[in-house]
Amino acid sequence: MKIAGSGALVAGGASGLGEATVRALHERGAEVTIADLNEEKGRALASGLRERANFVLCDVSDEGQVQAAVEQAAAHGDGLRVSISCAGVGWAERTASKRGPHQLMPFETVLRINLIGTFNVLRLAAAAMNGNEPLEDGERGVCVNTASIAAFDGQIGQVAYAASKGGIVGLTLPAARDLASRGIRVVTIAPGTFDTPLLAALPQESRDELGTQIPFPQRLGDPREFAALALHIVENQMLNGETIRLDGALRMAPR
């Protein structure tokens, strides 16, 4: 898939992994639509990039808002050819503790945003790509999802987050098979510990300690490394139906 001139949608694109991906796609010549709930950061990013970047306010769990974002992305460049989902939230709570059972509402909220939101973007973006004229190699589009190594190595207190990310891993292959006949690929990235705004709130000492837990390189991942893999997936047609760990060989301990 050629990136230059293609319409690209990045859900959760206003900060962190999504922002790095937006910048990388834009640098390579894509027409990028930034979809995010953070209107201030999203508009500032689009304004800073100037041409070929636009923002749309979007809750990934809202069908109408995602559809509007997809339509906006499809109206730019050669139509919507690239969709990347980075939106997500976390929650820390044990399945049961001295305080009682895990609260149900936070569990539902995490699954609604992380899993249902990812599927919402995937299904609506794929439907738009389905109407694209196929390229010379028959390809119509590429969808990249974001899971986490917590899908495989969920830690104590991560039951909601791990379940939501495990669901993304689980839907990747069947979705790729569903869309194969239309020339639409589906791939998931499972990042490890990355230097995102969520971790920026921690003291430097704590952030450094997290980095030393990674076998090599012994540092937090750079969001630009996530973006580089996302762009490689877009361009490498043989990558399909797979979940790729991006974690420096980290296997998380129980806590």
Low-pLDDT windows of residues: none
How much helicity do the residues have?
40-55%
From the spread of the alpha carbons, the general shape counts as: globular
Report the order of strands and helices.
EHEHEHEEEHEHHEHHHE
Class by alpha and beta content = alpha/beta
Round the Cα radius of gyration to an integer and report it.
18 Å
Strand content: 15-25%
Summarize the structure.
By secondary structure, the protein is of the alpha/beta class. The protein has helices at residues 16-27, 39-49, 63-74, 104-129, 150-153, 159-179, 197-200, 204-212, 223-235, and strands spanning 7-11, 31-36, 53-57, 80-85, 96-97, 100-101, 141-146, 184-191, 243-246.
Overview of this structure, please?
With 255 residues, the protein is an alpha/beta fold. It is built from nine helices and nine strands. The chain has helices spanning 16-27, 39-49, 63-74, 104-129, 150-153, 159-179, 197-200, 204-212, 223-235; strands at 7-11, 31-36, 53-57, 80-85, 96-97, 100-101, 141-146, 184-191, 243-246. The strands form two sheets. The chain has a seven-stranded parallel beta sheet with strand order 3-2-1-4-7-8-9, with helices on both faces. A two-stranded antiparallel sheet has the order 5-6. Helix 4 (104-129) packs parallel to helix 6.
